[in-house]
Amino acid sequence: MGRDHDAQVAQHHPGPVGERLKQLRLERGYSQRDLSGPGVSYAYISRIEAGARHPSVKALRMLAQKLGVTAEYLETGSQIDASESRELRLADLELRLRLDGEAPTAELREVLAEADAFADTAAAVRCRIALGFAAAARGQHTEAIEHLERVLETDLVTAASRPDVFLTLSRTYATAGSPTRAVELLERALTELREHAPEDTAIRIRFSTFLSYALTDLGELTRARAVVTEALYDSNNQATDPYTRVRLYWSLARISGEQSNSRAALESFRRAIALLEATDDTLHLARAHMACAEMAMVPSEHSEAAEPHLLSAEHLLGPNAAVNDLAMLRRLQAMAATRAHDYERAENFGRQALEYAVELPTEAGLALWAIAEARAGSGGHAADDAFSEAIKLLHEHGTIRDYANALRAYGRYLRESDREHDALNVFERAANVAANLAGEPSAAEHQV
Fold first, then answer.
1. Using an 8 Å Cβ cutoff, are 163 and 196 in contact?
2. Confidence at residue 371, expressed as pLDDT on a 0 to 100 scale
3. Helices 105-117 and 121-138 sit at what angle, rounded to 10 degrees?
4. What phi and psi values does residue 140 have, to the nearest 5 degrees?
5. What is the DSSP letter of 307?
6. Model pTM greater than 0.85?
């Protein structure tokens, strides 16, 4: 008899230890004398069964061995010990997170508190990773960063063993408007991989593509293109999966977009869409359509080409989309409505985008810019505040391209409002910022 039998009897003996002991003894045909031994008399067993005594650890072990069950089961009715029970609960929660996209955070916090209390570092790390992933999925970036930074302080999480932790944290940094921290984290990960797992080309390429995204956000386009070029070379010399190629095309598209080469950006995004359509990844396909829509609206005379992409993206995202995706979708819909001269609808979309972007300072800045453009188009006088707030956020958290273009848009609005002197000052600031789009950033981008 062993754990299989324990599992069976667990359903029939949920009572106190004395009741469980008596039931097991009778099932096996033992008398109290049969179970007795050195230090555990039959009278002692009788008192245990009567509920007058609680067995010592030594007695539990001896009685459990004779009855063919574990001491844990005899004492608690559970066929597994506390650490195994914690492991089962945690595994179930991790699986629910992977399958459903979000695990019950209250249960995860309970397991985390228990793991901390018993100094179960491995379980605590897994809890924090799950909590960090769940928070990131909800768009709660401050909480996600707190949990994931904690696990990186341990020796249990490395770039080779848990690349998903590094990638999720870097993505969260970037979304929260801290691309510099994303670059530092990804460069650390690549250094670790070169030292400890140089043969793992696929993971290295994946980190490189994310590093190129972060560098692009910083406006360091020369470094970003160099990183992508090296990754493309590695991918051409190794068998790579479709997602690797998608990420590389996406990187090239973003770099081209930052350099105002919308034609090259669209071509790379379309290649990414073609690869994604061969998969069941509707989320990334929706994001690719949104990226195409954004590039399509760069030359305003072709802005109607954005509408099919936005319709596809909204359909693919479905009713349970994440807040960061909804913020981007509504902001792009606002831009498209402004170009169609439907300014009331544009501002409505922009306000929705702003509501979704509560913890997304970059998206909030872009949403305010979309609102400002809608107000400027309608001929109202409330665009100044929206432009000022947008420019402030994009200066602190946005890319160089977005910051420069927002300044240009504000300058055009001022000029059309017959405020030429103010417009010239803003255009000068925009020119100083835009000078950095071809390569490395300089102090000019920080001049307000």
1. no
2. 96
3. 160
4. -95, 80
5. H
6. no
